Amino acid sequence: MRAARQAADAEFAARIRVILRASDGTCGVPRITAELREDGEVVNDKRVARVMQASGRPVPACAGGIARPFRTPPRWRCRT
């Protein structure tokens, strides 16, 4: 079972490399996932990120490679 998963991941990594070459290496996980889904592949972001990381491709935290913390909007109070 492990060998079958490794073989499937190797084939999947080859498809990811084709997409990366076509985009000059500028695509991230969300864009690659979208491209694969357009081709009819049933895949999620987690698998794409795992296979990219295993193949040595760095996976950015978010767009631009800078992690931005979530900010809650300020709570406005009515002054009475």
Name the beta content range. under 5%
Major sheet details: none
Low-confidence stretches: none
Would you tell me the structural class of the helices and strands?
mainly alpha
Distance between the termini: 67 Å
Helix count, DSSP H or I runs of 4 or more residues: 3
Helix content: 40-55%
| Mean pLDDT over the residues | 80
What series of H and E elements makes up the topology?
HHH
Q: What distinguishing features does this structure have?
A:
mainly alpha; 80 residues; 51% helix; globular
Topology:
Blueprint: H1 2-22, H2 29-38, H3 45-54
Descriptive account of the structure:
The chain has 80 residues and is mainly α. Helix content is 51%, strand content 0%. The protein contains 3 helices and no strands. The chain has helices spanning 2-22, 29-38, 45-54.
Brief characterization of the structure:
By secondary structure, this protein is mainly alpha-helical. It has helices spanning 2-22, 29-38, 45-54.
